[in-house]
């Protein structure tokens, strides 16, 4: 847990209190598990590169002219000329800019019809009351230790999506559709606007971390809903802010001040956000995929509405966060405004997305 000092572990608010031995053990387990994950990730990448190199050799041998090298990854003949190389670089730059452009489809949408929590049903309000009471520093430390030290399931991304389809998100006031319907709506909207393939995949898997509900969650309060930092003052810009009064950290002298256990501009990588599907899926994707940093940020922060939608907690941001904020906000429009009644034919779209998944998750069967 980067950014969380020893003072954030114990219930004693004194800065001189000692860290409990069980937390030292927990941090040691985390360090060991991080090392294991890194070794496995390197191993998987080596296997993937070996397969890729073999494929390239076969492609080159089958080339009829023998003089034109084949760029297997891009599927185009590159040649050796500077003009060809400039063309490829230009295409890469165009793709990089494409995901940043605002969707024409959502420019005139009535944003006030979404996230109307004041009109939300009792189910949604009761959910946030429980979430705001239970998301403490102590719980979040233990949740991260559990993630690092427990194994849950091994399956493919698509198998995960099918399993997730059984869940109804109690925190969402905008849709009653299934999880796979929302995943496909989001991904198809991104594909419609010709965004990069990695962006489309984010649309498909951004909520896949809700699988946590079927593993070791305490309910839905530690799986879904808007996220927020723990260990510092709860912002008034969080939904239903008054419900934090029941949180044990609310009156803690350390956790209830502006910076709490953090420091000014420490960076969100050093801030402990409330545990849920965002943080969970971020780590799964980081350990098993080749997705770019923007994609990982979209997954990790897409439910952090107090930050990317309400401009809260800006004083914790560093320069990297400013860059990632642009990516998260680009994705947010698709996540939020694609929630419509239209349902896609899953079997019809499945082949396209299976290929897309394999492109960025080379090991296919992964640890969740």
UniProtKB/TrEMBL annotation:
GO terms for molecular function: inositol oxygenase activity; iron ion binding. Residues 1-30, 49-99 are annotated as: Disordered. Substrate binds at residues 115, 169-171, 210, 225-226, 302-303. Keywords: Cytoplasm, Iron, Metal-binding, Oxidoreductase. Fe cation binds at residues 182, 206-207, 277, 302, 335. Residues 80-96 have a biased composition (Acidic residues). Its cofactor is Fe cation. Its EC number is 1.13.99.1. SUPFAM superfamilies: HD-domain/PDEase-like. GO terms for biological process: inositol catabolic process. Residues 49-64 have a biased composition (Basic and acidic residues). Binds 2 iron ions per subunit. This is Inositol oxygenase. It comes from [Candida] railenensis.
């Amino acid at each position: 847990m980067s950014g969380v000092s020893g003072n954030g572990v114990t219930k004693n608010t004194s800065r001189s209190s000692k860290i409990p031995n069980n937390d030292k053990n927990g941090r040691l387990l985390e360090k060991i598990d991080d090392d294991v994950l890194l070794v496995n990730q390197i191993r998987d990448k080596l296997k993937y590169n070996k397969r890729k190199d073999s494929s390239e050799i076969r492609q080159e041998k089958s080339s009829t002219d023998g003089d034109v090298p084949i760029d297997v990854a891009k599927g185009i003949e590159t040649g050796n000329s500077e003009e060809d190389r400039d063309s490829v670089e230009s295409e890469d730059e165009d793709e990089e800019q494409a995901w940043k452009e605002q969707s024409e489809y959502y420019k005139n949408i009535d944003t006030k019809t979404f996230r109307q929590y004041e009109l939300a049903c009792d189910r949604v309000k009761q959910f946030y009351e429980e979430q705001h009471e239970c998301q403490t520093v102590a719980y979040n430390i233990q949740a991260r230790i559990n993630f690092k030290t427990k194994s849950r399931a091994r399956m493919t991304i698509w198998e995960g999506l099918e399993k997730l389809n059984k869940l109804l998100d109690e925190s969402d006031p905008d849709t009653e559709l299934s999880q796979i319907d929302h995943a496909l709506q989001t991904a198809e909207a991104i594909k419609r606007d010709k965004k990069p393939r990695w962006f489309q995949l984010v649309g498909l898997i951004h909520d896949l971390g809700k699988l946590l509900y079927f593993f070791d969650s305490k309910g839905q309060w530690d799986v879904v809903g808007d996220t927020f930092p723990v260990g510092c003052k709860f912002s008034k810009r969080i939904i239903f802010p008054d419900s934090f009064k029941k949180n044990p950290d609310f009156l803690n002298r350390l956790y209830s001040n502006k910076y709490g256990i953090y420091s000014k501009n420490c960076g969100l990588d050093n801030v402990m956000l409330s545990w849920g599907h965002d943080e969970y899926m971020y780590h799964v994707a980081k350990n098993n995929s080749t997705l770019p940093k923007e994609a990982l940020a979209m997954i990790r922060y897409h439910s952090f509405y107090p930050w990317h939608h309400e401009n809260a907690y800006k004083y914790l941001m560093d320069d990297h966060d400013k860059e990632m904020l642009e990516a998260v906000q680009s994705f947010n429009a698709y996540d939020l405004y694609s929630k419509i009644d239209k349902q896609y034919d899953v079997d019809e779209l499945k082949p396209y997305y299976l290929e897309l998944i394999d492109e960025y998750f080379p090991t296919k069967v992964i640890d969740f």
